[in-house]
Structures are given as C-alpha cells and as structure tokens.
Design brief:
The structure holds two protein chains of two kinds. Chain A has a domain of 50 residues. Chain A contains three helices and no strands. In chain A, helix 2 packs antiparallel against helix 3. By secondary structure, chain A is mostly helical. By secondary structure, chain B is mostly helical. Chain B has two domains: 37 residues, no CATH class; 200 residues, no CATH class. In chain B, 71% of the residues lie in helices and 0% in strands. The longest helix of chain B is centred in the C-terminal third of the chain and has 40 residues. In chain B, 33% of the residues are buried. The chains are: A mainly alpha, B mainly alpha.
Chain lengths: 76, 243
C-alpha cells in the first residue's frame, strides 16, 4: 500500500465512493459465490450437502468482507 | 436464427465454418451452427480492432515538440491511471499501468459503442464483464505470486495459523465474490442504461431519450472508473508488503 503516514483513501473521494459502493454488492456476491462453489463441489464429488456448507461459508465471507471494509482494515 | 448486427453478419458470413469447427473440436455445440458468432463477440472484435488501429495511429504520430490532440487524450488517460495507481499501490506501480490502461480503454469503448446506431454495448451481456473480471482476477493473483512467491498463500491463511482451515475457504470465497461483484455491477449498470434509453425512446421518441443517452455516457465513464479503481485496490492488496 502507500507509504506510512499517508492515507490516500481519506483524500480521494472517488476511491471512497467506489469502495463503499462495493458494500452493496459484496455481501450478496459472497453468498452467491459460496453457494455456487458448493453446488460445483456437490456436482463434482457426487454429494448433496456441500452446497449448504458453501452457502454458510459464503455468508460468513460476506460478513468478513463487510466488516473489513467498514472498519477500514485490510488483512492483506 | 438470432437477430444479427451488420458486423456480426459479416463475421458469420466469413468465419461461420471455421468457428463452428473450432467449437465442435472443443466439444461445444453452437446453438446456431450457421451463425456461431454472437453480437457480443462481434462487438468485442470490433472494439479490439478499433483500439489496435487507434493505438497504432497514436504511436505513429508521437511527437515531443508538437503533440497532437490524440496524443494529448492518451497522455491524459495514462497520466490519470499512473497517478491513481501510485496513490493506491505506491511507488512500484508503474509495471501495472499497461494492463490497467488497456483494460480501461477496452471497457470504456465497449460501454460507449452502444450509443452509436447499429451497434450494441457488449458489456450489457453478462459474459463480457465476467471475462473482464476474470482477467483482472487472474492478473492480480499472478502479480501477488510474482511479488511474494509462494508466501503469497499466507494472504489466504488469516492472521493466525490455527485459523487457517476456516479462513482459507472464506478467503477463496471472498476473492471469487470480488469477481462476481465486478461482473454484476458493470453488467447491471450497462444493461439498465440500455433498457432505460430504449423504454423512453419508445414512449417519447423526440428529445427525452437524449437525456438518457447523456446519463448512459456518464454511467459508462463512472463504471469504467470504478472497475479500474477496484482492480487497482485488489492489486494493491495482492502486492502489499505489510500483512
């Protein structure tokens, strides 16, 4: 990221708009992504329950991304 | 047979045989073997050819003493993306500029081409934004591995080692979700822009659609900007030094 002491996100309004507009998309996107991965794994491994695990993990992933974005911390 | 734009018709007349043959070799049966090239594909080919010719033209007319209008425009685009990348990624961001500028020009041209009668925005078809999002995803993951080597995998393991088995699937899903959200945002905005213009054109064919065409132009620029900005943010996350 940028050099220490300088927070570009505070100065760039457009960057903030883009990141916060992401809030509306990331939660449903994570839920659908988790479900799709689960369905794919079910299809591949001939199981019937992995879609549920994918769905739950997707919801959790959505919350994790949401909290990460709102708190402004980036674990990466 | 599907409704074809004039350029799609030309491509299908010229390449229907080889394209159908190629698809069948890949075990894909095209819905219309006489017209396997869709409008979205033909518009992308057109945008690609247009950009190649445009860049070749700019390259052939580069001048330090007397820069032309086109050179000014492209220097502006390049300068804007360099500035933005440096602000978000840091000083080692120059290497990412060619990819970001190419992606921005492609998406913007795809968004705007629909305003010309006889053409369609390929970004209003879900597979095209998905293709752009998959390209961005592969690029930032590749840069992450290139920058950190195998240690990049630690990004997916979470802050503590014992959390890794839970964090790994969550991180994978959240990276796939980024791709999905980029796709849905661009597709939905371009599709809605097209629909609104079309609906108002059918209701009031004079004057009013111009407002919505103006709105469509604004949305085209804004969505291109957001797509590139988020790709830059993801790139910054992938190549960041601190964890």
């Amino acid at each position: 990221m940028a050099s220490p002491g300088k927070n570009p996100e505070k100065n760039n309004v457009w960057l903030q708009i883009a990141k916060y507009s992401q809030l509306a998309f990331i939660f449903p996107a994570a839920t659908v992504a988790g479900w799709l991965i689960g369905v794919g794994l079910d299809h591949w491994l001939h199981t019937t329950w992995l879609y549920l695990v994918g769905l739950i993990l997707g919801i959790v992933a959505g919350f994790v991304e949401l909290i990460r974005m709102v708190s402004g911390s980036d674990s990466e | 047979m599907p409704e074809q734009l004039w350029f799609t018709e030309i491509l299908n007349r010229m390449f229907a045989g080889p394209v159908t043959g190629l698809l069948r070799a890949l075990h894909i049966e095209p819905q219309y073997p006489q017209a396997p090239v869709t409008n979205a594909v033909s518009m992308q080919v057109l945008v690609f050819l247009f950009l190649v010719v445009l860049f070749a033209l700019v390259r052939s007319r580069l001048s330090v003493d007397k820069p032309g209008a086109l050179q000014h425009v492209f220097e502006g685009i390049h300068g804007f993306i360099v500035g933005q990348s440096e602000e978000i990624i840091g000083h080692h961001s120059e290497g990412f500029t060619p990819f970001l500028v190419a992606l921005a020009c492609f998406i913007l041209t795809c968004n705007l081409i629909g305003l010309i009668p006889g053409f369609e925005s390929p970004t209003a078809v879900p597979v095209v934004p998905l293709g752009c999002a998959v390209t961005a995803f592969i690029y930032y993951q590749t840069q992450g591995f290139k920058h950190h080597g195998i240690a990049y995998l630690k990004h997916f393991a979470g802050p503590m080692w014992w959390l890794a088995p839970i964090m790994l699937p969550i991180e994978i899903i959240s990276h796939v979700a980024r791709m999905l959200s980029l796709t849905v945002r661009l597709f939905a905005n371009m599709f809605a822009g097209d629909m609104v213009t079309l609906v108002f054109f059918s209701l009031v064919p004079v004057g009013v659609p111009i407002l919505f065409l103006g709105l469509h132009i604004g949305v085209s620029f804004l969505q291109t900007y957001i797509f590139i900005l988020l790709t830059t943010v993801y790139l910054a996350g992938a190549v960041a030094e601190e964890h």
